[in-house]
Design brief:
Radius of gyration: 22 Å
Order of helices and strands: HEHEHEEEHEHHEEEEE
Number of strands: 11
Strand content: 15-25%
Shape: globular
Helix content: 10-25%
Distance between the termini: 50 Å
Number of helices: 6
Structural class: alpha/beta
Length: 261
Amino acid sequence: QANTTNYLAAEFWINNGATRIVAAREMSLKELKGLRDNIPEKIEIEAFVHGAMCMSYSGRCLLSNYMTGRDANKGACTHPCRWKYSLVEEERPGEYYPVEENERGTYILNSRDLCMIDSLPELIDAGVSSLKIEGRNKSAYYVATIISAYRHALDSYIANPSAYKFDKKWMDELCKASHREFSHGFYYHKPTAEDSTYDTSDYVREYSFIGVVKEYDEKTGLALVQQRNKFVVGDEIETFGPAREMRNLYGSSVYYIKEKI
């Protein structure tokens, strides 16, 4: 949000003591490469790679602040871009004309979420040294799921860049967190109609976070779980954590609830 879209803007911050440049999310991969080539090698570049995209330039929308008093620039956005709107003619106040695409209305400002997990080599080649992932106001489950997927993909690339191949399982794992449809944002081209969703503002939710494992007894096989959401006999559950591989992707960690507790 500091308008760092080129190396001249970056130079201003570097001259004022900055050691890392957070690039505006409107920059393309080509523009990031140009930034990298024109600033000192010791200066790091951080780029946004995953999460909700603002319909306004670099998150400067004032709708939330104006309509609800919650400031988007202070992390309190109410996401009014996801709401339904009607059209009012200047000389006919009170006459609301619906803007409709289906029975639920339309969402003319509803951008897709950014997802660059399938483009990590391109980001690294462009000179990005830090990946910025949305986390503010998100659940621990969301943050853990998204970061775990990116961590596995990034570690795989670092281990052998020349033999790296994107694994669709990383995307499947990432999608287990609540999300909207994805796009590549501005990285490959300016967004088009394909980078917004006009028929719904709902999230895709196929998994539910049910609890945190607090203790586990290897002898009895019993675990103490702090429940967060409802689960019942017959539900299929998966376990994951920082010291484990990605759930059932690299070895089974899928269980079924067989009896009441």
